[in-house]
Amino acid sequence: MSLLERLNSDIKQAMKNKEKDKLTTIRMIKSSIQNEAIKLGHELSEDEEVTVLSREVKQRKDSLHEFEKAGREDLAEKIRTELQYVELYMPEQLSEEEVTEIVKQAISETGASSKAEMGKVMSAVMPKVKGKADGSLVNKLVQQHLS
User: Fold this and answer.
1) Contact 85, 6 (CB under 8 A)
2) Neighbour tally for 29: CB within 10 Å
3) 70-77 long-range CB contacts below 8 Å, 24 or more apart?
4) Full-prediction pTM beyond 0.70?
5) Which string of DSSP letters, residue by residue, matches 26-41?
6) Is the dihedral of CA 128, 2, 33, 11 positive or negative?
7) For the chain, what are the domain ranges?
8) CATH 1.10.10.410 given to domain 96-146
9) How many Å apart are CA 73 and CA 54, to the nearest integer?
10) Is pLDDT at 50 greater than 90 in this prediction?
11) I need a surface site. Which of 17, 36, 84, 85 has the fewest CB within 10 A?
């Protein structure tokens, strides 16, 4: 079942169950995916769908951080709920240990030895963990292992 088919099915289910927040969030995800497909001019591959979902998660995490900083708990709670629904469609996330192994492997492959070569390591790691690990976690681990 493709992601769009799954989204359509979940939209119908959310409508039947009268889950307004879930329905709204799923529609936003579907809209983002369809807009990206229109922009690129073709059906999205699984990788491209993960990219769109990752963007949606990142936007919500940024919003959540800002709302919490501003003391707007009402809005923060709404964003937390949306984030839960978006994450249902993301690939299973890698554990910190798994990401650490990928980082170590990339460092040995690239021969990087200092923080000046961090970009080289990041460009080797990110395609391997795309959508499966948070970029800030990868960044932190790469810095730790290069220092």
Assistant:
1) no
2) 23
3) none
4) yes
5) HHHHHHHHHHHHHHHT
6) negative
7) 3-87, 96-146
8) yes
9) 24
10) no
11) 17
